[in-house]
Amino acid sequence: MSTGIPFHIGVDLGGSSVKAVAVGRDGTLLGSLNLAFQDRNREWADRVDEAVRRLSSDHGTPEGIGLSAPGLASPDERSIAFMPGRLLGLEGLDWTRRLGAPRPVPVLNDAHAALLGETWIGGAAGVRNVFLLTLGTGVGGAALVDGRLLKGHIGRAGHLGHITVDFEGELDDVGTPGSVESEIGNKTLRKRCGDRYANTHALVAAVEAGDPEARRLWNRSVQALAAAIASLVNVLDPEVVLLGGGIARAGRTLLDPLEVHLDRFEWRPGGQRVRLALATLGDLAGAYGSAFNSIRRTPPFPGAEQ
Amino acid sequence: MSTGIPFHIGVDLGGSSVKAVAVGRDGTLLGSLNLAFQDRNREWADRVDEAVRRLSSDHGTPEGIGLSAPGLASPDERSIAFMPGRLLGLEGLDWTRRLGAPRPVPVLNDAHAALLGETWIGGAAGVRNVFLLTLGTGVGGAALVDGRLLKGHIGRAGHLGHITVDFEGELDDVGTPGSVESEIGNKTLRKRCGDRYANTHALVAAVEAGDPEARRLWNRSVQALAAAIASLVNVLDPEVVLLGGGIARAGRTLLDPLEVHLDRFEWRPGGQRVRLALATLGDLAGAYGSAFNSIRRTPPFPGAEQ
Question: B-chain residues within 8 Å CB-CB of A163?
Answer without folding.
Answer: 163, 231-232, 234-235
